[in-house]
Structures are given as structure tokens and as C-alpha cells.
Amino acid sequence: MDMTVTGSTDDEQHVAGNGGANDLDLRLARWRIMLEKKHQNDHGNGFTYIGPLGVLPLTPAMILDWCHALDAGEATLSTPPNIDSFNVAYKAPALHPARKAMLSAPPPTPVVDVNGLTSVLLLQTLTKSGVTHQKCW
Q: Which of 60, 58, 61, 70 is nearest to 24 (CA)?
């Protein structure tokens, strides 16, 4: 699909297309241009939403979901839709299932042998006091 992007103002973009593009495609393209403009990274190598729960890198599928929600009136340019693809809880830092399980499990606590520790402390105390050097017979 051949699209030409023109803008009458900074905030308003108009997408004119030809080659059989329907109205929905044109509206989604318009929303995408505005989203990408608003959420483009500083170095121009991707898109990121920064919200109250932190940073969320935007994938092409997420941008498309957001555009559909914008078109339906279920989101704004500043607030993404309330759908699973934008739920931070589903954005795990590791993709491998074994690694993901390791990240979610709390670190193991060391096992302390209280009886052994008590014995060592008792021997140290007795050694310092000189009781262990006395003859018992």
C-alpha cells in the first residue's frame, strides 16, 4: 500500500493513501504515526511507553493493539489500552522456562545447624577460660 504522510500542524497528521486502502487502514496508519512520534526512543531505534509502573518497550504488535484501541476510543496517546499485551506482569526478562522459574523463585536461605553452632561456641568459651586444660583425674 502506497501512503503519503502530510501534516497540517505538529499534532495533526493526515495520511492519504491509494491502492485500495480502506478507511480503517487509513485511521490505523494515522494513529500509528502519532504513537510513534510520541513514544519514539531518544536515539530513534525503537519505541517505549513510560508509565506509572515503569518502562515498557513497545513491539509492533503492541503498537497495532494500541492503534485499534485508539480507534475504538478505549485508549489515549498517553495511556495504553488495559489489555494483556500491556500488562507488565507478563513481560518476563527471560524467555527460557527454566530461567524464568529461577528468576521468580526466592533465593534459598542457608540452613543453620543450631546444635553444631552451640557446640563450637561452648568449646571456644571453655578454651578461653582454661577449663579444657585442667586435669580431671
A: 70
Q: Is the dihedral of CA 32, 61, 71, 21 positive or negative?
A: positive
Q: Shortest CA distance to 66 belongs to which of 80, 85, 79, 54?
A: 80
Query: In 3D, which of 69, 91, 72 has the Cα closest to residue 82?
Result: 69
For 102, phi then psi, to 5°, come to: -65, -35
| pTM exceeds cut of 0.90 | no
- Give the integer Cα–Cα distance in Å for 9 and 66: 23
Over residues 64-105, the pLDDT tens digits come to: 999 999 999 999 999 999 888 887 766 655 445 555 555 555
What one-letter code names the amino acid at 94? A
Element (H, E) at 7: strand 2-7
